[in-house]
Amino acid sequence: MTLTHRPRRLRRTPSLRALTRETTLTPEQLIHPLFVHEGEGLTEIKTMPGVYRHDVPGAVASAQEAWALGIRSVILFGIPDHKDAHGSGAYAGEGVIQRATRAIKAALPDLTVIADTCLCEYTDHGHCGPLVADGRGGWLIDNDGALDLLAQTAVSQAQAGADIIAPSAMMDGQIAALRIALDAAGFKDTPIMSYAVKYASAYYGPFRDAAGSAPSFGDRSSYQMDPRGGYREALREARLDVEQGADFLMVKPALAYLDVMRTVRDAFDLPMIAYNVSGEYSMVKAAAQLSFMDERRTVLETLIGMRRAGADAILTYHALDAARWLREA
Length: 329
Prior knowledge:
Elements: H1 14-19, E1 30-37, E2 42-44, E3 52-54, H2 56-68, E4 73-79, H3 96-107, E5 112-117, E6 131-133, E7 139-141, H4 143-159, E8 164-167, H5 174-184, E9 193-198, H6 205-211, H7 231-244, E10 248-252, H8 258-267, E11 272-276, H9 278-289, H10 295-308, E12 313-316, H11 319-328
Parallel strand pairs: 1-3, 1-4, 1-12, 4-5, 5-8, 9-10, 10-11, 11-12
Antiparallel strand pairs: 2-3, 6-7
EC number: 4.2.1.24
GO cellular component, one term: cytosol
Keywords: Heme biosynthesis, Lyase, Magnesium, Metal-binding, Porphyrin biosynthesis, Zinc
């Protein structure tokens, strides 16, 4: 029998496979996350092997390592010493993120510094906005009260030199509130990276350990998205953020929501960010430590899958390792 079509012809050698690839992955498409704490020194996060809480000098050093590997963007998460009901450390001029931003930009002026803009790491109750009594002996998240605090945080971060503001609180109207505040403060050219499609996910567990941001009561299901919500809710959330002035859209988590990412990617023409979250990272790390999986191949395959689903860039705790592996390839 004579076969006319043999797809294997184009897979025969490494150079042929490289020639015909549709999906690429480069260090420039990775965003390196940094946890920055108020204390001194370096502390490994138990639930995220290979990820650390840095002091400000350590954050600068890690950013320099990322730059040397070809990574051009970092995102900063703050871990303050002091927490209060309104998360005032988030918008303090000398807050940990503000100080880290200034230090990193002084050392690496061409590196893109993204500031995570939320209150949960800074509130003593662990929620993403201030609380109000619900009239039944309980508490509710004050959505509209959070908007002013998030706007103050965004302006403070931009004043410190942040190149991109990334609000993650999932408060209704937050993109419009931040855009108005940034413009009024003279930061019309500072883009907003919206955590537009963010689910109330079990995959965030290790992050909450890392950032000390677990809620002291209840959960975030009333303001983060329902994992069973479907495509319509995702498109509505993304559309509202686009209408309010978002410059990037993000889907978080990425791995369990690649179908959602593809749907949002096809509906909007803004740059798409995939957040390869802490639980996704820790699962691979745990399996690799037990020799159940090949870490390098698994990580790169996962990141390629996110690119194929529509991600223009990927925020991932694997960033440093992935950049090394890509340079070796």
